[in-house]
Amino acid sequence: LTGVASGLSALGPAIAVAxxxxxxxxxxxxxxxxxVAGTKFGDWLGNAEAHAMAFFGSKEAKEAIANNEKxxxxxxxxxxxxxxNTIQVTSKVYxxxxxxxxxxxxxxxxxxxxxxxxxxxxxxxxxxxxxxxxGT
Length: 136
What we know:
Layout: H1 2-36, H2 40-55, H3 59-79, E1 89-95, E2 98-105, H4 107-112
Antiparallel strand pairs: 1-2
Helix pairs in contact: 2-3
């Protein structure tokens, strides 16, 4: 019985460390989701992380940086030097030749023009293609 008691007392510090780690992870996730993701700081942080990982030899980070540069060149070529031209997207929903809904958005374009770094970016490959489109 004494051995069980001493074994349980040895678990105390391990439980404290594990619970602190879990709490820190949850707080960090909350801060990231509510205060960093989708902000200019979040974009800067993602860019800095990609460059740091590329410095240490990450192939994926190097590809992400190259893709980001291609994206910036595409924006400059198609939307002006700073990519700030806002495009309004108007979507109409029809039912039996009658318009039953309309959605006008500008935020889709703003999100699409953000740098494609980190998990908070717009992923154009996730968009559904037109009806009949099979890809290339």
